[in-house]
Amino acid sequence: MLRIEADTQMNLYEALLPKQVFELNEELSRVDALLGDEAITAPFVERFAEGKGRPTVPVETYLRLMYLKFRYQLGYESLVQEVRDSLMWRTFCRIPLDAKVPDATTLIKLTHKYGDTTIAALNEALARKAVSEKVVRGRKLRVDTTAVESDIGYPTDADLLADGIVVITREVKKLARSGQLEGTFRDRTRSTKYRLLEIAKQVKRRTNDKVAEVRAITRKILKTAQEVVAEAERIIGNTGHQALRDAIDVTKKIIKQTQHVEEGQSIKDRIVSLVDEDARPICRGKRETEFGYKTILTETEERIIIDYECLIGNPNDDTLLEDTLIRSKEKLGRAPRALATDRGFGSEANDTICTNLGIKKVSIPRKGKLSKKRRGYQKQSWFRRLQRFRAGGEATISVLKRKYGLRRTRLRGHSGAKIWVGWSILTYNLRRLSVLTG
Description:
alpha/beta, 10% strand
């Protein structure tokens, strides 16, 4: 059963203590007022209003706990401990002294239960609230993209194949313990581990043939993975062990892409993790590559992120502008007067889209060699002024990554990444609005 409001009635223990120990600091007091709006809790009521079952953690409490988690970059267990020990944080989260702080596992389950659509609706509700109260004007927008890393190690063909072997072997052992195993299965994890150690030794060598040696060892692991998959498929037959089927399917994909690499073929949609199949390599510049999800952010001149989207893969920036501008215009109630982006969004089509949406000043540098007319256009004072405004978006992204958890998602899959990004942005916007409304 969904509970919205927490029990705030003062008990005997709290009545004996001085009121000063329960006072919130300036930031928490303003954030508490922002979260107290019914429009913020409306997405929970629309999606999860139920009259049956055990009462959940009150939504008011859950929202405030998650704000503290992302505001101070705490793990779930650390968050519970800190709230338990702090009278001010208890007051903020509306947890009486004689009440138990929700368990870390409960918060994790609730985060997955509410999902990415609810957090997206929360961000939209907060944005609309800021616009309706004229805290956000949205006369100028800046749009930029960044990579949100998945919580995985650096993926190599050998490591991915080894992970597939380990996961399949583990699931087969579970079948054996439950008495459902039919046929024989050979455990090859030890030999695979030794080959990974061989690779680690080879990469430290300074000779020119170390790459060929590493590829030779990788081919041995590839052959082992093929044998493991073949045995596992014979064992599973027509049984309904879904976890083993999933492990076999993803390992077969990794085997296929490793074979393509051995043949010198390029791979467009490369799998980089068994635990996060949706993560993809995202190139930044010519040398740096991150593994995770691309996120596009639209920010107003008040430094409020009015719109965001977490994407699979690495689509070109110039294909993303139209959708984010349409969503931003809907939330603002009108088109912004000016727009600034980097040259990654530059194209004649995007300039036309901006004009059709009613944006008067469009500062998007073009790629490649410019014509004389275009160079003159980009040298105008207002164009350069908007480019300086655009550069401020880099600072916002840096703050989000350093202080609000946007650098790396700790939840798996595309849905998990959208949940993580959504909470990071919601926390940042709440903190920023608490400053603007102060």
